[in-house]
Write a structure and sequence with these properties.
The chain has three domains: 86 residues, Orthogonal Bundle (Arc Repressor Mutant, subunit A), CATH 1.10.10.10; 107 residues, Periplasmic binding protein-like II (D-Maltodextrin-Binding Protein, domain 2); 108 residues, D-Maltodextrin-Binding Protein, domain 2, CATH 3.40.190. It has nine helices and 13 strands. Strands 3, 4, 5, 6, 7, 10, 11, 12 and 13 form a nine-stranded mixed β-sheet that branches. A two-stranded antiparallel sheet has the order 1-2. With 311 residues, it is an alpha/beta fold. The protein is rod-shaped, with a radius of gyration of 32 Å.
Amino acid sequence: MSLLDDTAIFAAVVQQGSFSRAAKHLGLSNGLISRRIAQLESQLGVALIVRTTRQLHLTPEGELFWEHAYRIQQELNSAVSLIQSLSTKPRGTIRLSAPHYVGRHCIAPLITKFLQNFEDIHIDLILTNEYLDLVKENLDLIIRGVGYVHNNATLADSSLHAKLLFPSTLGLYASSDYLYRYGEPRSVEELEKHAIIGYTDKVHLPEHHTWSYSYKGKQDSVIIRPKFNCNDIEISITACKAGLGIGRFLVWPMQQAVENKEVRPILTDYDWGTMNVYAFYAQQKALPQRTRLLLEFISTQLECCTKKVSG
């Protein structure tokens, strides 16, 4: 046992008023209690307790040691109570990162709703399309659709856990005004005659884009050169609505634009693939309750939203 353990035994003896009651309270033998107090006194070099046949008294040194021992015990009890309360009433700060568009239109509104129910939780939301190191950036969650998962759905970083938030299919879109002026393509081959709106989450924009697709069970791809290229998906969607050209986007952000007749889906006989959105977190540690609650809330809410879109 350590000095701290012996101090706890000393505190129990004082509080219980006798060695025997302290032994019963702690579930130890009377002999062990006596030996630990004797060792504590030997280590401190002073007598702490004077025992008689009926009662015990603290020496002046014992009184002084008891004052400090009691304060230490109270601080320890407070720390234990605080940690236990965290398991029932979540509190603390959650740091998470999300891409600009997903963060602005999906995650931020959900965080607002979440925080209304948890007044002791604080959230730092970092919006960026860049790849971030979860540990170096001290992040609890990273929400991304690309960059952290290989094409075969395996994690690029084995130190991370991944939770699928929602899958979304890709499609091609153009405004009615653009299609009226330039005609609607009826095949992939006709895309080379059209203005293309490109999007990438990279800072260095590629000159050409490769769009993979499946048609009648056959996998293939087409290489196109965008007329307009941007690393912000919201600007690319705006350009598409404005009639600048044809863009490839996820279905869910285009749903409202389709309903408002700002754009139309084209080449719908082709399967343009899917892009899954995940939440990533460190594998080596258990999620604190506050982070787990937020992740479950986001996952549930996004599942409801995607069901509405797919339905």
